[in-house]
Specification:
The complex is a heterotrimer. Chain A is α+β, with helices and mostly antiparallel strands. Helices cover 33% and strands 15% of the residues of chain A. In chain A, a hairpin with a 6-residue loop joins β12 and β13. Chain A is globular. In chain B, 35% of the residues lie in helices and 12% in strands. Chain B is built from 10 helices and 7 strands. The radius of gyration of chain B is 22 Å and the shape is elongated. Chain C is an all-alpha fold. Classes of the chains: A alpha+beta, B alpha+beta, C mainly alpha. Chains in contact: A-B, B-C. At the A-B interface, α1, α4, α5, β13 and α10 of A face α1, α2, α4 and α5 of B.
């Protein structure tokens, strides 16, 4: 039997965690990334990583409640089994990262410190300064380097994934639920320096390529987060789920090149959001007396206050600025105020993010309230993945889980998902997996703060085993796939590249065909039509615009013809794929005629469980006039009964208030 | 403050003088572009403008400038380049600060210590290789659940955190007179390793499990290109964007190798 | 095996680097301190009331002569000298090798520390040239390199030295001035190189770790440097303005029997400070 290999595409938290998991099992990994993996977008995560912990447990918190909060946060759109498994596994993730040397903040006694984060009344967020994502990524990067030295990992940095290579699937070889007549046997990738295009064989391919923020132009994402890789899988036949669920982070710093995140931890550590009560109050913010400030989140949501989930906070800020015209200085911005806090404590707990503000805006947030506005931050949607249910199968779903209640399900692995089942987090195409942000599985209609890092690492560590098992047990080996399919795939990509480069670099390019201009227009249109507040009309209008953009994309002219390190080519190719994905996002949003989580429609302001308690799934059918086929899958909701997601809003129906325990409140 | 700065930069022009090089084997040349910075613009947003319409100041059609970029928040280290003769990240280089007046010129050059891939984009593989040379990781047993890591008091965690914010950008290497280009990979193991790697050794030697590899790391730093190759110019600490106390790390490792070599003389077989 | 070889290489390399650092302090640096103390006795000796002379400059000359004679009568002098020369050669050869691995960039990064880095290398080269000249002319008797062709005689320490620096007994010649200037630059370089080297050695060996400690030790090294610099410059100026004729008289008076210097020197040790 020839050597089995796994390809991991993407070197962020999910990709690296998977790499380590698989390499440790003795299977060699080829790791592809558009950048040196240490520079992946995971570094940008600031706030922390959630997990049940001993302190919170003693106050009545549990893994089960973390699970419940995640579901509630996601407005019950997530399948429940994977979320349960993730919440149950979370403390193990923290322990492992701790062992890897992540410098988690410590209490005076030397235990890991915790902070409060959105969507919970308990401190369950572990953090390392204000650069938790960076610290976690570095720990995994170091372990990956160790396996690289051992010869188990081969890195392909500055290589761009172009497409999966698919072979006919012999039904006898199928694993999991069969939704495709193809299997994934490798990838085609391009060296961004030499521009060489070549194919690589693998018995399993893990997509860990993150989000698609660049579709929205200025987002909080890194410039590499185009969503191109996910789109290429989608166009190759992988299903894309819940694309319309795009999280807008309530507090970002607007900038000329991107929007920079101001972590939720700024509010977790006591930051207050307000605007002057008078619309054109031009006094210095520090001169405005308390009674003339409108702390609109605290007034409307007395229990959670500034720590309501992100979609609610974004919408309220949007409402204050757009509808009530109360934005600071008449612009789209509100104050995020930390000036009442002790500067030394702020430096210790938030130093990194305060520096970012200072560095990129020029004001000292310890002295002057920060000016912030919502920005696209995270995609809950992603490649559709399947799983095998674990052994817990209740007869009756539970209602709300309250602090102190005995968790109905134990926390060993295997209750939510079946540990090591070959199809866990596998797309509809056998052999093609999706981990991390590009996997739609965990966050439903909106993601709770500090759950992203968790889902990424959980996918890599826990579901990495599924890939190991799938590769080990398979009868079929990618080495047996005919060479011709690889050659064809490479030739195809070469043709596409050549077509893009045709006529490139000769003279001035009209804006209409300029990829950079098309990209700007795409971003503006998507931000306007499909972020905080959506309507059917606006989205339909955007769809027309996208049709125009994809037509222009097909005639694009590049202003660089270089056959060496041509980043314009890379961008242009991604742009074509971004437009495809943008349409999926829009169409999913148009058809979801309800409001749920981050998907808020003015024309359908209520959640409609009867019709839309379902996962949107998009399939690429190139033969159809509209190649996007949308269908719906039922949500697995066997554990918890969906309930209203009100976060104690004053005018909402009264609900049983959770018993708030000492020390847990903000 | 910010708002007034932003208003100032409204409709003015600045000039970017960029050292361009089509490929490793091509000769570098300067090209100048005039751009109108947006409010709050940084070097990256100017480069983005140029990419859309790459016309030089003299009106010639050119090509987008190749550069490396990632987070644009100064945590990934990708967009490091030499700006007005000094190495730094281009994302955090605000136009209003570096070129406050109409018509000011900003010079952009690639880092000089690493091979140029194209224009401002360089290959920093040697930097990552250094982390292999020094076994910069905590040697955990396995990924299986074994409970938490070692308990750690804040007075140890805090310095460790600071050291751990190193984003491998290479500023310390670019500014170091002892760190010089080594195009041949074979030379990397004997050429000066640089402040970042020395500081990482300090980081891992501080960790209770990490220090299991202490001797290996120190010995890697005792050989050619190790800590003794530091010339104490102390530029590293002055250009480090994360303000990591690199010179303190160098001194601490100096002490560690001193102690290690004496101890070894007395105890090694 | 491979690993073991690497280990040996690392050990040897490390040993060489640390010996390089060490030799700069011991013996070279320590010798420099003694040497400058001796030489500057031409100035501070003026305060030596027991010296065999009447006026202040004379006392300096006498004290200096006394010091020189004392040193020249030390047992095992040649071995000490050879050790010193070997140390200097070792320090210099390795130093040059190390210096070639760096490429100064003070134009781009004009920080004080970086300038000192560049100066440390420059002063090393200058000091080496100077020391070679200094030893060749005053120890090995390569008098063709000395304007006026005077040969050093340790019985006539101040007078021959003054002649070497002045170029002529009567006045300061142009060539003499050039030699004096070279001395001035040479001793300045040597002192800077030592003081700055002492500062960096504390980092190299890991004595000063914190930035504050490095700053404090920097003050100490600067203080020592200033003191040594004063002695060095004082010596050069002192000898430059010493009247060789008068010096010779004083020295001769200290050695009544020209050819039994050893005995005479012993006889006059009562003036020892």
């Amino acid at each position: 039997m020839s050597e089995r290999r796994v390809i991991v595409v993407g070197g962020g938290l999910a990709g690296l965690a998977a790499t380590i998991r698989i390499a440790e099992a003795g299977i060699p990994v080829d790791l592809f990334s558009m950048c040196p993996v240490k520079r992946s977008h995971s570094v940008c995560a600031q706030g922390g990583i959630n997990a049940a912990n001993d302190i919170a447990r003693q106050q009545g918190y549990s893994e089960y409640q973390h699970f419940d909060e995640t579901l509630l946060g996601g407005d019950f759109l997530a399948d429940q089994a994977p979320v349960l498994e993730m919440a149950n596994f979370a403390p193990r993730v923290i322990d492992l990262l701790d062992r890897m040397g992540v410098p988690f903040n410590r209490t005076t006694e030397g235990f890991r410190d915790l902070r409060l984060f959105g969507g919970s009344l308990f401190k369950r967020t572990h953090f390392a300064g204000a650069t938790t994502g960076q610290q976690l990524l570095y720990a995994l990067d170091e372990q990956t380097r160790r396996w690289e030295v051992e010869g188990k990992v081969r890195k392909y940095e500055f290589w761009e994934f172009l497409r999966p290579v698919l072979d006919e699937l012999d039904p006898d070889d199928a694993i999991g639920h069969v939704h495709s007549d193809k299997r994934c046997v490798g990838i085609v990738a391009q060296d961004m320096r030499t521009m060489q295009i070549r194919s690589f064989r693998a018995d399993a391919v893990i997509m860990a390529t993150g989000g698609c923020g660049l579709i929205f132009g200025k987002s909080t994402n890194s410039v590499i987060c185009t969503g191109g890789a996910a789109s290429r899988c989608y166009q190759a036949g992988a299903w894309y789920a819940n694309g319309e669920m795009i999280q807008v982070h309530p507090t970002a710093i607007p900038g000329a090149d991107k929007c920079r995140l101001m972590s939720e931890s700024a509010r977790g550590e006591g930051g207050r959001i307000w605007v002057p009560r008078k619309a054109d109050d031009d006094r210095k913010p520090t001169d405005i007396p308390e009674e003339e400030r409108l702390y609109f989140l605290e007034e409307k949501y007395p229990k959670y206050g500034n720590l309501v989930p992100r979609d609610i906070a974004s919408r309220e800020i949007f409402d204050i600025c757009i509808n009530q015209d109360l934005g600071v200085a008449g612009q789209n911005q509100v104050f995020l105020d930390l000036t009442h806090k002790d500067p030394e404590e702020l430096d210790r707990k938030l130093g990194g993010i305060l520096e970012i503000y200072e560095k990129f805006v020029g004001d000292d947030p310890r002295k002057v309230p920060m000016r912030i506005f919502p920005a696209v931050h995270y995609s809950m949607g992603g490649l559709w993945t399947q799983y095998t249910q674990g052994d817990y199968d209740p007869h009756q779903p539970h209602g709300a889980h309250n602090p102190g209640d005995t968790p109905p399900i134990a926390t060993e692995p295997g209750h939510g998902l079946k540990l090591g089942a070959s199809n866990n987090m596998m797309t509809n195409i056998p052999g093609l997996y999706a981990f991390g942000e590009v996997n739609f599985a965990y966050h439903g209609a909106t993601r709770l703060g500090a759950n992203a890092l968790l889902s990424c690492i959980f996918d890599g560590l826990y579901n990495g085993l599924s890939v190991v098992n799938a590769v080990r047990d398979a009868e079929f080996s990618a080495a047996d796939a005919p060479q011709s399919i690889f050659d064809h795939a490479v030739a195809d990509e070469q043709t596409k590249t050549d077509a893009l480069l045709e006529g490139a670099g000769s003279g001035e390019i009209p804006d209409e065909l300029n990829p950079y201009i098309i990209g700007l227009e795409l971003g503006e249109e998507m931000t306007a039509a499909s972020t905080v507040v959506k309507t059917g009309d606006r989205m339909r209008q955007a769809m027309t615009k996208l049709d125009e953009l994809s037509d222009r994309c097909s005639r694009m002219k590049l202003n660089d013809a270089a056959a060496w390190s041509n980043r314009t080519l890379s961008y242009a190719r991604s742009l074509q794929d971004m437009v495809v994905l943008a349409k999926v996002i829009l169409k999913g949003g148009l058809q979801r005629e309800e409001s749920r989580g981050s998907h808020y429609r003015l024309d359908f302001p209520d959640r409609d469980d009867e019709n839309f308690f379902k996962t949107t799934v998009a399939e690429h059918v190139p033969s159809n006039p509209d190649p996007i086929r949308i269908f719906y899958c039922n949500v697995d909701a066997r554990l918890v009964e969906p309930r209203a997601r009100s976060y104690g809003e004053k005018k909402a129906k009264p609900e049983q208030p959770p018993a708030q325990t000492a020390g847990a409140g903000a | 403050m910010a708002a007034s700065n932003a208003q100032q930069s409204g409709k003015r022009h600045i000039r970017l003088k960029i050292l361009r090089q089509e490929a490793q084997d091509k000769l570098p040349r300067y090209e100048t572009f005039d751009v109108q910075p947006e409010p709050g613009a940084n070097v990256i947003s100017c480069l983005q403008q140029i990419a859309a319409r790459p016309v030089t100041a003299s009106g010639e059609q050119s090509t987008p400038v190749a550069y490396d970029a990632g987070c644009l928040e100064e945590v990934c280290g990708a967009c490091t380049m030499v700006i007005n003769g000094r190495v730094r990240q281009s994302c955090s280089c605000l136009i209003d600060q570096i070129a406050p007046n109409d018509g000011d010129t900003i010079t952009l050059e690639p880092m000089t210590k690493f091979p140029v891939i194209r224009d401002l984009w360089v290959d920093r593989s040697r930097l990552f290789h250094a982390l292999k040379r020094t076994s910069s990781w905590v040697p955990i047993d396995s990924i299986y659940d074994r409970g938490p890591g070692p308990k750690e008091l804040p007075d140890k965690q805090e310095p460790r955190y600071v050291l751990s914010t190193c984003m491998s950008c290479g500023c310390c290497l670019e500014a170091c007179p002892q760190y010089n280009p080594r195009p041949d990979e074979k030379d990397w193991d004997e050429a000066f390793i640089g402040a970042h790697a020395i500081s990482q050794v300090r980081l891992f030697n501080l960790h209770d499990t990490g220090k299991q590899l202490k001797s290996e790391r120190l010995e890697a730093l005792m050989g050619p290109g190790g800590v003794s190759d530091c010339g104490n110019a102390q530029n590293c600490v002055k250009v480090c964007p994360k303000e990591i106390p690199l010179t303190e790390s160098i001194a601490a490792i100096g002490r560690a190798v001193t102690v290690h070599s004496i101890a070894r003389w007395f105890t090694a077989r | 095996m491979g690993h073991e070889e690497e280990g040996t290489l690392a050990k040897r390399y490390f040993l060489l680097r640390r010996l390089h650092s060490l030799t700069g302090i011991l013996p070279i640096g320590v010798f420099l301190i003694f040497h400058l103390t001796t030489n500057s006795s031409v100035l501070w000796g003026a305060a030596n009331t027991r010296a065999h002379a009447d006026d202040l400059p004379g006392r300096g000359i006498a004290t200096f002569q006394h010091e020189v004679s004392f040193i020249n009568n030390l047992p095992g002098l040649l071995i000490m000298e050879i050790t010193l020369w070997a140390a200097i050669a070792f320090h210099a050869i390795l130093g040059i090798w190390y210096a070639t691995t760096g490429k100064s960039n003070t134009a781009r990064y004009p920080h004080m520390d970086n300038r000192r880095y560049a100066l440390q290398r420059l002063t090393g080269y200058i000091a080496l040239l100077f020391i070679l000249y200094h030893i060749a002319t005053l120890r090995w008797g390569w008098s063709f390199l000395v304007p006026g062709g005077v040969t050093w005689g340790h019985e006539h320490a101040a007078s021959t030295l003054a002649l070497a620096l002045r170029g002529s007994a009567d006045s300061i010649t142009v060539a003499g001035l050039a030699v004096s200037l070279f001395y001035f630059v040479g001793v300045t370089s040597a002192v800077f190189h030592f003081a700055n080297g002492l500062w960096t050695a504390a980092i190299t060996w890991g004595l000063t770790i914190s930035t504050a400690a490095q700053r404090r030790w920097g003050v100490v090294c600067a203080g020592l440097g200033i003191l040594l610099m004063a002695m060095a410059w004082g010596s050069v100026v002192g000898f430059l303005f010493t009247d060789p004729e008068k010096a010779r008289e004083i020295e001769s008076a200290m050695h009544p029997e020209e050819d039994s210097t050893e005995h005479t020197a012993r006889a006059t040790t009562d003036g020892a400070p």
